[in-house]
Write a structure and sequence with these properties.
Layout: E1 8-9, H1 12-24, H2 38-51, H3 54-59, E2 67-68, H4 78-88, H5 93-102, H6 106-110, E3 119-123, E4 128-132, E5 139-147, E6 153-162, E7 168-179, E8 184-187, H7 189-198, E9 204-208, E10 216-224, E11 229-239, E12 244-248
Parallel strand pairs: 1-7
Antiparallel strand pairs: 2-8, 3-4, 4-5, 5-6, 6-7, 7-8, 9-10, 10-11, 11-12
Length: about 250
């Protein structure tokens, strides 16, 4: 999948860490709110919430929420993992399209002018699935999984949404450990943090989950202000049977 523009990625660690602060903070209301009608204050609060992207909302809660996988008595595969994630976070449009596609409700996608523009691609054999709006501005969910040495599976999701006229993307990298004995995907945020911390030296980074092979491709983008461009450095996070080892691509 081609990256259509380089942007400043929101740090995955920030999603996880800021969630606690946002949920526990005591926010003092604006003094002027006391002078406004209750309905007006409520409307403004709703509008403010609507301005927050769904990726940010997902980023604030995914690492605390295990997901049930319904494999219907068979060995779980990429479609089962993607369906569980998309069902839990269906407000994000690529996930909604993906869920409708996987549950046989494609007419719901066709009936919506925007949703029918999305493309879903599945490679069940290699354990890869993606849903993308193929325009100048990326709007996508990709996912894949690996078999772990202990019989579990590691499942990864990469979400990205670029905003027209903005220098920032909303992004999220999420990992889950799937236990076939319980049918549960348990969040594994330390792996996302491992990649995010390794890329802190860059102004932005993009992630390409493997459709072929087992290694994650990560590209760090460093701003070159003199030439109004980015200098890109590629890395492979090589699969070792349980997690990943970082290696720069020479």
């Amino acid at each position: 999948m081609k990256t259509k523009k380089y942007v400043v990625a929101l740090a995955v660690v920030a999603f996880a860490l800021s969630a606690c602060g946002e949920k526990n903070a005591n926010v003092k209301p604006d003094a002027s709110d006391a002078e406004k009608p209750a309905a007006a204050v409520s409307a403004e609060a709703t509008e403010s919430q609507d301005d927050v992207s769904e990726i940010v909302n997902i980023g604030n809660i995914w690492d605390t929420r295990p997901l049930s996988v319904d494999a219907k008595g068979k060995t779980a595969g990429i479609e089962d993992f993607a369906k569980a994630f998309a069902k839990a976070y269906g407000e994000y449009k690529p996930n909604k399209v993906m869920y409708n596609h996987l549950t046989g409700n494609r007419k719901a996608n066709e009936a919506d002018e925007l949703l029918r523009e999305f493309k879903v691609y599945v490679n069940a054999k290699s354990g890869y699935l993606g849903c993308e709006l193929p325009t100048e501005y990326d709007w996508l969910t990709t996912c894949c999984y690996w078999k772990r040495d202990n019989g579990h599976s590691l499942v990864a999701f990469w979400l990205s949404e670029a905003h027209e006229g903005s220098d920032t993307d909303d992004t999220l990298l999420a990992f889950y450990d799937y236990d076939p004995a319980t049918g549960t995907m348990t969040p594994e945020p330390k792996l996302a943090q491992k990649i995010d911390m390794a890329m802190q030296r860059y102004d932005a980074y993009t992630v390409r989950l493997p459709e072929q092979g087992k290694d994650i491709e990560v590209t760090g983008h460093k701003a070159d202000h003199e030439n109004d461009n980015y200098v890109n450095t590629q890395y492979l996070f090589r699969w070792n049977g349980n997690d990943f080892r970082m290696e720069e691509v020479k």
